[in-house]
Each structure stands twice: as structure tokens, then as C-alpha cells.
Design brief:
4% of the residues lie in helices and 69% in strands. The protein has 1 helix and 10 strands.
């Protein structure tokens, strides 16, 4: 994964920050993964080992005494092989201290796919093979297909063990996604240098 990010603050006061960011990521898949995915290619072509993600976000942060509220919106374009997808994400985070050594965080993220374009195969009658056609918008209104969306809700905390080390714990659940569910527990550490 290679990425480039840029962030700019447009408004900054003692208790409020409004900013925006732009990002570009390139994911390089292994030969083993691309060979496996190529087995499902209707044209028999090799799947590209490179995927791209471009994003634009707007984030607002508000401080209420020692509590912090963050809200943001992200628009993301994903490109892999013969598919291009545009997603919209809306997120919120609330953080608060719970004593001298404990900080609690609660967050939610809703993602929805706005549109997907994919190359449709065209059958060549002369050669009896499939070739790449043009990009067409995928129709999510078809029977049995719904627009991909998900809601992720999480809670976690940081227990400050010393000035330089904190223990992190958390739980996250993924909801609303069809044919997929996820419950994630995390335990980790944070070091300050």
C-alpha cells in the first residue's frame, strides 16, 4: 500500500476546527491473489495487480471543556481491474475523559455506494470469444440486488499507564451489510516519544 495524503485547516479557533483532506492510495496485490482472481475473468485476461483509491473529505472538530466531538464526510473513488465505485461515508466520534487515566471514545460510520461502473463483456461472433466492452453503470434496482451500505459502531478506551505508554481496548460491530457480519475486539498499546 502506497499513499499520499494532504490536509488543510480552513477555520481554527480555541474550540473549533474545520478542515479538508485529499488522498490517493495505490494497492499492489500479490501474484497469487491476481492469479486466483483471473480464474473468474470472462475474457481470460489477467487481473491487474494495481488498485487505486482517491478520496476527498471534510472534517469538523468541536471541543466542549474536556470532551471532543468530530464529524466528517468522505467521498471516495475506488478503481480495481474493470470496476469503478464511488462511495460516500459519514462519520461521527465522541471522546471524553473518565478520570485522570482513562479516555473513552464512541464512534459511528455509515457508508453507502453511490454508483458503480463496470466493463461489460461483448461477445465476438466471428472469433467466439468475449472482449472488453465499454463501462456501464451497474443497476442496483434489479430484483435481488440492493445498494451496498453498512453501519459500523464502535467503543473503546485508552488507559494511561504512564506518561509514555497507554493500553488501548475496543469493540466494533458492522451492521446492515448483506451476507456479512463482523464483531471486532482490539487490544493494543500506544507509545509516546
Amino acid at each position: 500500500l502506497l499513499g499520499v495524503k494532504g490536509r488543510r485547516r480552513f477555520v481554527q479557533t480555541d474550540d473549533f476546527v474545520l478542515g479538508s483532506g485529499i488522498g490517493a492510495d495505490m494497492i499492489i496485490y500479490s501474484k497469487k491473489i491476481t492469479d486466483m482472481l483471473s480464474m473468474f475473468s470472462y475474457t481470460g485476461d489477467k487481473v491487474s495487480p494495481i488498485a487505486g483509491i482517491f478520496s476527498l473529505d471534510v472534517v469538523a472538530e468541536k471541543y466542549f471543556s474536556s470532551n471532543r466531538v468530530i464529524g466528517g464526510v468522505i467521498l471516495q473513488q475506488n478503481m480495481f481491474n474493470k470496476t469503478q465505485t464511488t462511495d460516500l461515508g459519514v462519520a461521527a466520534l465522541y471522546g471524553m475523559p473518565a478520570g485522570a487515566r482513562l479516555t473513552l471514545n464512541f464512534d459511528a460510520l455509515y457508508r453507502i455506494t453511490l454508483m458503480t461502473f463496470e466493463k461489460k463483456p461483448e461477445y465476438d461472433m466471428m472469433s467466439g470469444t468475449y472482449t472488453d466492452g465499454s463501462y456501464e453503470r451497474f443497476d442496483y434496482s434489479q430484483d435481488g440486488i440492493s445498494t451496498p451500505h453498512s453501519l459500523t459502531i464502535g467503543a473503546g478506551g485508552i488507559i494511561k499507564m504512564s506518561d509514555r505508554f497507554g493500553l488501548t481496548i475496543g469493540y466494533r460491530i458492522l451492521l446492515l451489510a448483506e451476507y456479512y457480519s463482523s464483531n471486532t475486539f482490539t487490544i493494543g498499546g500506544r507509545f509516546a516519544f
